[in-house]
Amino acid sequence: PPSLISVSYESNFSDSSLATVGHVVTVTVETDVEIQTPTVTISMNTATVTDLGNNKWQATYTMQDDDADGIIPFEINSITDIAGNPNNGTTATTDESIVIFDNTQPTLNTVRIASNNPDSTWAKVGDTLTVTFIAEELLTEQVVTVVNQSATIINLGSEKYIAKYE
């Protein structure tokens, strides 16, 4: 029967261990011999499987709104070589890679706005407004607008951010 040499998966997000709606999760498989097209599920949905040649296969699935949050499960069903010899598939990687699906909107614990005016609750032309916000989790994209204008955002670490607008 065929053997799995390597199994890994990742997303096309900038941090390949994370995904949200619209990100593509890819499971890559390499076997020791030529096999028939395997059946793969990702997040309990049928994945599109592509033969990369040289006993390598790739399965992809685009994450959807109704997929469950957490570590994205995958399963490579039984694999069969060209002669018809079957082997059990797997639900584990060989490189310990994982991909986590997070479709929960982030929340901000603290949001404060102040100006550099002597009375920080007021602002006039030329004053700088500072918006400070702390999130419950790391934010990958932040946009702050003040009076329909973009503010400059500074990541202070530990999920704390400052946005400045002049």
Please specify the SSE layout and strand pairing.
Blueprint: E1 4-11, E2 18-19, E3 24-31, E4 40-42, E5 45-46, E6 48-53, E7 56-62, E8 70-71, E9 74-76, E10 79-80, E11 86-87, E12 100-101, E13 108-115, E14 129-135, E15 145-146, E16 149-150, E17 152-157, E18 160-165
User: How far is the N terminus from the C terminus?
Assistant: 68 Å
H and E string: EEEEEEEEEEEEEEEEEE
Class of secondary structure makeup? mainly beta
What is the typical, i.e. mean, pLDDT? 93
* Number of discrete helical segments: 0
Beta-strand portion reads over 45%
Name the shape in a single word: rod-shaped
Provide the helix percentage: under 10%
User: Count of DSSP E strands?
Assistant: 18
Strand order of the largest sheet: 1-3-7-6
Radius of gyration: 24 Å
Low-confidence stretches: none
The major β-sheet equals: 4 strands, antiparallel
Account of the 3D structure:
With 166 residues, the protein is an all-beta fold. 0% of the residues lie in helices and 47% in strands. Strand 10 (79-80) and strand 11 form a beta hairpin. The protein is rod-shaped.
Based on the model shown, name its key terms.
single chain; 166 residues; 0% helix; 18 strands; rod-shaped; four-stranded antiparallel β-sheet; mainly beta
Quick take:
The chain is mostly beta strands and 166 residues long. The protein has no helices and 18 strands. It is rod-shaped.
